[in-house]
Design goal:
This protein is mostly beta strands. It contains one helix and 23 strands.
Length: 231
């Protein structure tokens, strides 16, 4: 179906919806509880994709990786693009969008993108701080959709994102067999205004580690005793 018109907050479609989309706001003990279907726009004018001929068969898609040796050595702003047939299953680090081991990245931002039909996550935060991920939509992605990897990541902001249909995967970590739309290994990050609509296991999973893990292993960093940033 196609959007034929938009008037204020009302969207008009060229044909009726196939399924019922609930939108009610009942009151319990004097408190209004809005319950409405989440809606995510998956198309963008700029398309970044794998090979339509064989990506799905091989679970081998396109990916974006930002990596450089030290604080503020890279600035990447990925805004309002569509990524599909992205990520590479069975390939370590080949996520749809991946910021990898840079340190502080105050100027970097992933905003307003749509990641759908990804074979390896939607957006991975690995060994970076002060990273901003805002107003993105992830739909039908394999493994933890928004992945915060080594428990060393701090002060990152996830604001206004939507994750729909996070799928289990047997090709990544053991935890990806029961995935979370968000998988946090450290608490010192900011979560605001995000929504989850469907996952094979969890919505938000704070999997607190005793130390920083993986490539960032440090026995002196104890995430399970670190103060929560914001949720």
């Amino acid at each position: 179906m196609v959007i034929s018109d938009i008037s204020g907050s009302t969207i008009y479609l060229t044909e009726p919806l196939e399924h019922t989309h609930l939108s009610v706001a009942p009151t319990y003990d004097g408190v209004e509880m809005p319950m409405r279907a989440e809606v995510g726009l998956l198309t963008r004018n700029v398309l970044f994709r794998g090979n339509p001929a064989d990506s799905q068969a091989d679970l081998f898609g396109a990916h974006i990786m930002v990596h450089s040796p030290g604080d503020e050595t890279s600035t990447a702003r990925i805004h309002y693009i569509e990524l599909t047939e992205a990520g590479q299953a069975f390939k370590l680090g080949r996520y749809a969008i991946h910021f990898h081991m840079i340190g502080t990245v105050h100027g970097s931002l992933v905003k307003g993108n749509a990641v759908h039909h990804s074979y390896n996550r939607a957006c991975t935060t690995h060994g970076v701080h002060y990273f901003k991920v805002e107003q993105n939509v992830a739909y039908d992605t394999m493994g933890h959709s928004f992945f915060i990897e080594d428990a060393i990541e701090t002060k990152c902001v996830y604001d206004g994102n939507l994750s729909i249909l996070t799928r289990a995967s047997n090709s990544f970590l053991n935890t990806d067999q029961t995935p979370g739309a968000w998988w946090f290994t450290g608490p010192d990050n900011i979560m605001r205004n995000n929504a989850v609509a469907g996952s094979d296991a969890y919505g938000y999973w704070y999997d607190m580690q005793k130390t920083a893990i993986g490539a960032s292993y440090d026995p002196n960093i104890c995430p399970e005793f670190t103060k929560l940033g914001e949720f």
